[in-house]
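Team,

Forwarding the record for the chain on the shared tracking sheet. I've put the sequence and predicted structure together so nobody has to dig through attachments.
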Amino acid sequence: MKAHDQMYIDGAWRPAVGRDTIAVVNPADEQVIAHVPAGTAEDVDAAVRAARAAFPAWAATPPAERAARLTALADALAARKDVLAETITAELGSPLPLSQMVHAGVPVLVASSYAELAARHAFEERIGNSTVLLEPVGVVGAITPWNYPLHQIVAKVAPALAAGCTVVLKPAEDTPLTAQLFAEATEAAGLPPGVFNLVTGLGPVAGQALAAHEDVDLVSFTGSTAVGKRIGATAGAAVKRVALELGGKSANVILPGADLAKAVNVGIANVMTNSGQTCSAWTRMLVDAERYDEAVELAANAVTKYVAGERVGPLVNAKQQARVRGYIEKGVEEGARLIAGGPDAPLETGYYVSPTVFADVTPDMTIAREEIFGPVVSILRYEDVDDALRIANDTVYGLAGAVWAADDEEAVAFARRMDTGQVDINGGRFNPLAPFGGYKQSGVGRELGPHGLAEYLQTKSLQF
């Protein structure tokens, strides 16, 4: 890897304008592992100017050639899979097997999928006496989170490049080393200078400068709803397009007649993955009254498989650890019944939180309404199917969810009435081409597949 104290702008590694740096801390042992530049508005401006200068030529590059560069990028990521996994484990704390399979593995599939889409997508069509063109939006400001650092970078940068856009990336300050490795991969893939640029820095400084820059045409942000609202307001003032993938409080609805043991076990595993730091995690488990006690017992047994420091890694930083422990304390205070885990730190070193399950949670409790972003499951009781739907939809969020039933048809009928952007039916597998994004305060726009590509295209019609 190039020196950590540099940024990647206009096809070259260069030092930041200022001297301030950000410490990168390993959340498992609380040790500083690197320092990266704390980019300024001047650094952002240099990156945006490079992206703007590179845009005309990249936009005019035939889709087949852009596809070839994306294929080369996927190959470069695959070649770096081991070091990417090790780096993600070091700066995020994810257990290495998860880093290898999910954090470093899935982005290769996503990058490859956009290479294929770029090669075969119809960028123009004939409608009556009009030719309709799909053209790149322009310069994209991509602001990515720490919880899936490489996946979120690829989910934004790959479709932007496929569309013919140029990009300035501002990664999360907790996981910038992964972004630096990604920049190396773009260099190895032969992207022209300025097509991809990396500026590390703090959100209120570098992130805000990127979102507000007059030469950025679209801001793609993944993170909290609160920050998303601020970015939306900044972009709106300039009539600038945004794509926002924000928070979630997803319902895992287990209908009467479903395989209860499977639904509970998969539901617990879903929340414990990545230490619960997943915006689409099914943190609310809804079970009918007749089988509620059985589900609670199954959940209590299932969560014993997830041990902090083994299958469950630490949270990303001390602030996040304190936040999640505060929510657990709030759950106890409001009357929820703790059946596993609790607020006490399970290990002396590292930002760990015990895998926690609450029973007797009611829809009005804080832990049932606010995104916790940790390994915490709330089990809620419903009386009938209509009551289950009411509880599932009683949230400001609408990102994801799951439905379990005796057959797929029943589950699909229920899922059609859920106010959420993506629903897994009876344990449906992840699809890297399916659109991902939310309803309500979970965001605006979609990622992945052709719907993700569409976010970076604008429409022009020619009448003749």
